[in-house]
Design a protein that fits this description.
The chain is an alpha/beta fold and 578 residues long. The chain folds into 3 domains: 184 residues, Ribosomal Protein S5, domain 2, CATH 3.30.230.10; 162 residues, no CATH class; 139 residues, no CATH class. The two termini are 30 Å apart.
């Protein structure tokens, strides 16, 4: 019985000793008979020994699945602190007075709370935050800020952090905008814009967690390979131009040729500035047009085109089979596989199109896409940190990214009346790849869908004058993510390529720059799903004196209770030996 008492005491004390807890206010939206209204809830977090799982309880139920946001918030917090959280479970609880609209709008708050508990850092009272949490630690816009501030004004909250870009006007659920300064004066509150989690933590804790001053140090291996890729495509461009004889051609073909030359010049300029991905993209665009013009000069028959397309399809399918045999060991391998497979799928799609009026363009596009796939496959020769990129982990990562994109699409549909066609189509493709077991390609397409959904959310209710600043913020966040990946020997070749292209476009094509900057963010942090087991474990903060005292007292009481039971039981008489 004494051993049983000791075991019970240990079972009682250990959970108390190893559990970490915290809570913070949560700004939310609820649906009423009169429309949407602000609501205040409480977010609780308990971390205890486990297997890295995330549990979410909401009382009452949230109208959007909140577990996805909590899971991503946990990943972002562990990554931010560079903690190995695989041996701990995270239990989030949201308590509200009525059903709320959860989902991504709780992401920033959950990330702040998780960082606080993991680092044993106290949060200031009377402060709250609303915003999504995005790759790179960026705080993204949410709907119903006016209603949330209205609800907070009736409580003790005196400071509200909102996503940067929404500072000039407060957007409500019914698209009414009010001046933010007027709100501060009317309610005696501080309403502060923040761009990222690091900035938000300064207000919540009074200290700066990180200083981001580093620049990307591009590996020579990446530079040499991407330069070779750009040189191949741009050399091909020069050869195609030299075959052109543009005398006596129609105005339509001349327009295609002029467009090709315009892309060629952009490619030459990017090459000189050592922006190799941008150069490759521009030369690829030019090559399609030049190839189309060249084919138009040949006046091939329909039978000839069908023969050419059939031969091209065989080449595409042959190279596709070769790619499927590639072993994926590193992030570079994974991204190389993604980008090559995407190009082969597009090449096959156009090779299968057989409309009479577009034979020349379809063949030109398919052929150039195959050529660029050959060039990108050179990245398989790179080395890097070997990760557990098996089928099971790829499947889990794909499922997670699909969930993140789906959650954002659901949330956006509450506040936006138009159809989110592009991200929905990419997500449908991701589902299709998932069902077919092509999890690497699924992860790629789900990441693109999530990026496009983020763009919609990030520009929702934001003044157009803020877009250049938003692009800069995303590029800065991408820089941080790429630098961190580089230090872990997981340099994201595709993420960096999109980063470079976004920087190249930001002065001439702001929307495309914003899109590629978002692609860069989502495709530069894939390693968070494929962590290596580290020797260093999560450090548990010093135990609270009250917590220890309660545990000891309860343990003693149980021990005394068991001893009393033992004394009351009649002792068995020993039988005498006869």
């Amino acid at each position: 019985m004494k051993k049983l008492s000791l075991i019970l005491i240990l079972f009682l004390i250990l959970p108390l000793a190893y559990s970490m807890q915290g809570k913070m206010p949560l700004l939310a939206i609820k649906q009423t008979d009169d429309g949407y209204a602000g609501s205040l809830a409480e977010l609780f977090l308990e971390i205890e020994p486990g297997t890295g799982r995330v549990f979410v309880d909401t009382f009452p139920l949230s109208k959007i699945d909140t577990q996805i946001s909590m899971r991503f918030a946990k990943e972002m917090a562990c990554d931010f602190l560079e903690k190995d959280c695989d041996d701990y479970n995270f239990i989030y609880t949201i308590k509200a007075s009525s059903p709320i609209i959860g989902g991504p709008s709780a992401g920033a708050a959950a990330t702040i709370l998780t960082i606080s508990v993991l680092s044993d850092t106290k949060l200031k009272k009377n402060i709250a935050i609303t915003g999504t949490i995005n790759s790179g630690g960026l705080v993204g816009p949410v709907g119903g800020i006016k209603e949330k501030i209205d609800a907070a004004s009736k409580t003790e909250i005196k400071t509200i952090l909102i996503p940067e870009g929404e500072g000039k006007k407060i957007n409500s659920t019914d698209n009414i905008s009010l001046a933010i300064k007027q709100y501060e004066e009317d309610f005696g509150m501080r309403i502060i814009e923040v761009a990222d989690i690091n900035s938000a933590l300064l207000y919540f804790t009074g200290k700066e967690f990180k200083s981001f001053e580093e620049n990307i140090s591009i590996s020579q291996s990446y530079t040499d390979t991407m330069k070779g890729l750009a040189d191949n495509l741009c050399d091909r461009n020069l050869k195609l131009r030299n075959t052109m004889d543009m005398d006596n051609f129609s105005d339509e073909i001349n327009k295609i040729y002029d467009s090709a030359i315009n892309f060629s010049r952009k490619g030459e300029k990017a090459l000189k500035e050592k922006e190799f991905y941008s150069a490759a993209s521009h030369c690829f665009g030019s090559n399609i047009r030049l190839s189309q013009v060249f084919l138009e000069t040949k006046n091939f028959s329909e039978i000839k085109y069908k023969s050419l397309l059939e031969e091209l399809r065989k080449k595409i399918l042959g190279f596709d089979k070769k790619m499927d045999k590639k072993e994926i060991k590193t992030i570079t391998d994974l991204e190389s596989y993604m980008v090559v497979k995407e190009r082969l799928i597009e090449a096959l799609k156009y090779a299968n199109l057989t409309k009479n009026d577009s034979y020349s363009y379809n063949y030109a596009y398919a052929n150039e896409r195959l050529y660029s796939a050959y060039s990108w496959s050179e990245f398989f020769k790179h080395t890097g940190r070997i990760l557990q990129l098996d089928e099971s982990s790829l499947k889990d990562s794909c499922r997670q990214r699909i969930s993140e994109s789906e959650e954002r699409l659901q949330y956006a549909s509450i506040y936006l009346s138009f159809d989110l066609k592009s991200p929905r189509e990419e997500l449908d493709k991701a589902y299709n790849d998932f069902n077919q077991g092509n999890y690497a390609l699924c992860l790629f397409k789900a990441s693109k869908s999530k990026a496009e959904s983020n763009i919609v959310l990030n520009t929702m209710g934001v003044d157009s004058e803020y877009i250049p600043k938003l692009i800069d913020n995303k590029l800065k966040a991408a820089t941080r993510v790429i630098v961190k990946a580089e230090k872990k020997d997981t340099f994201p070749i595709l993420g960096y390529s999109y980063y470079e292209y976004a920087a190249n476009l930001k002065d001439t094509d702001k929307f495309s720059a914003l899109l590629y900057a978002e692609y860069a963010l989502e495709l530069s942090n894939l390693d968070i799903y494929f962590k290596e087991k580290k020797n260093t474990k999560l450090q548990i903060p010093p135990l609270d004196i009250l917590q220890i005292t309660i545990g000891i007292l309860l343990g003693l009481l149980i021990g005394l209770f068991i001893n009393l039971l033992n004394k009351k039981q009649p002792k068995k008489k020993k039988k005498k030996n006869r």
